[in-house]
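Example (one chain per record):
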Amino acid sequence: MEATTSRLGTLLITGLLTMAACNSTARSNDTAASEPEVIEATNMVSKRPYTDFAMPGADGKNMRISDFVGKTKYVLIDFWASWCGPCRAEMPAVVMAYELFHDKGLEVVGVSLDQDKADWLAAVKRLNMTWPQMSDLKGWECQGAKLYGVRGIPANFLIDQDGNIVAENLRGEGLINTLTALLP
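Predicted structure:
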């Protein structure tokens, strides 16, 4: 009985750690998830200045967050990875937000925590992520993720044109509702 309890405890802890690895919220790892998770809260935060950083883009040339902030009304920095099931499940909401609000002043900048460039770029194409992408290919040692204190993905930060973070970790309908309010 003691051995069974010990094995069960080990399996439970392993399962919890696996779920936490991508900041999972009980979503499927299926890349064809039909609907993103709905969160009602807008996750607005007290304004604080964003932190700039540079990384190679998909073409290998360095790009900076400051290349986008101030040139459009809002920039959404979206931290994700090709291997992260919750990130893939959330991506249809980000794609929808980009399609609905890009012409109204939203830019999305993807920051991948991948380590393999081929996997990263294949996921960008497969998930229809047509916005700028960057990655230093260092996984959890990603410079941008460290600067922003990202401990789980997906994670995002919404920056206004004055360079202030105004919301973070917007998901699904919460992302769309927040952008609808800010970019009517």
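Caption: Confidence is low (pLDDT under 50) at residues 1-41.
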